[in-house]
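Table S2 (continued). Query chain:
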Amino acid sequence: MKVCVIGSGGREHALAWRLSISPSVTKVYAIPGSAAMLDCAELVGIDWQQSDHLISFLKDNQVDLVVVGPEAPLVAGLADVLNKAGIPVFGPSKAAAQLEGSKVFAKDLMKKYNIPTAAYGVFHKVDEAKAFIAQTGAPIVVKADGLAAGKGVVVAMTIDEANVAVEDMLSGNRFGDAGSTVVIEEFMEGEEASLLAFVDGKTVVPMIASQDHKRIFDGDKGPNTGGMGTYAPAPVLTDALRDA
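Corresponding output:
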């Protein structure tokens, strides 16, 4: 089968490489891909946002499956567009991708279904956000609602830091539309692990736990980044904890 990977980052490189060594895959395209992916995929200079051009390429080259790596195309509804065109795609719908694309949506969903999560408030105005910060105290966490390449979170150790973060996001337009709404959460200290799973609406197949380091300096110091490195499995997520 022929597979096309959408994206150009390290995640997409890993996907393209693994697909390229599968005995069931005869060809891997990458849109737009990167020079690092040349050893495992054919790069195609198409903008995924040009859906008509993308669909024409996929159909003309008889691509059997599209694997979407980045969050932005999924949040924009690329999976829906491809499915409507009759092209099989691995990736959530626009509706499901809100879990990644909107922290407000994710937090409200967790609250609705009693999924444990940090206490929080949602704000559009600076003065209301600052009042909440003053009432809650620091440390406290300020998050841009939308996608910000992993950088839209400020772990504020003081009230002043939190107020500056709120001003940057709501008044300073630091993250554009992604920061027009902020989520302010209670500060929770401890180790964090991620457990992803493959789902098809009926079956859930979990992967192994991973852990990344987002603060730019050792010792959990400095601003958050998109991720300073990841390893798996993560010992903190034991079998007993995973099955709980």
